[in-house]
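Ops channel
N.P.: pipeline sanity check, posting one input/output pair.
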């Protein structure tokens, strides 16, 4: 039960998609559609977070007249996305998601390397997987 009170207990750890700064936005858009994800972290060669590309970033680029076949993630990504560490309490994460009106936070280690993602859906899964759900565990 204690594990579910921190990011490490509910975060998506291994099966998330990342992009590089030079990834083509058209490829990212197709990945989002086929993988049913709404945001993809942008990392450098050491897996350190550089930004995130969301559906909204792509829509905004198209609205601005950009050809998504000819631009890369670094052209449209949201730089310096909100990050938390593995020990961040889920209650703090829910507050961040609510006050910033965002869908996910990136989980990084002490060196800034991406180790996971906590989305609103991860929090909902955590609530429903607890015996006797629904109950609030943070």
């Amino acid at each position: 039960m204690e594990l579910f009170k921190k990011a490490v207990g509910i975060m998506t750890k291994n099966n998330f998609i990342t992009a590089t700064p030079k990834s083509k936005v058209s490829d990212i858009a197709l990945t989002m559609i086929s993988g049913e994800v709404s945001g993809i972290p942008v990392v450098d060669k050491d897996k350190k977070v550089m930004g995130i590309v969301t559906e909204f970033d792509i829509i905004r680029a198209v609205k601005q007249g950009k050809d998504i076949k000819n631009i890369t993630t670094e052209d449209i990504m949201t730089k310096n996305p909100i990050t938390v560490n593995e020990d961040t309490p889920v209650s703090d994460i829910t507050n961040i998601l609510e006050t910033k009106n965002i869908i996910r936070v990136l989980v990084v280690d002490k060196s800034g390397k991406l180790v996971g993602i906590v989305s609103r859906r991860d929090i909902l899964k955590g609530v429903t997987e607890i015996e006797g759900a629904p109950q609030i565990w943070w």
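N.P.: looks fine end to end. The CA atoms of residues 93 and 99 lie 10 Å apart.
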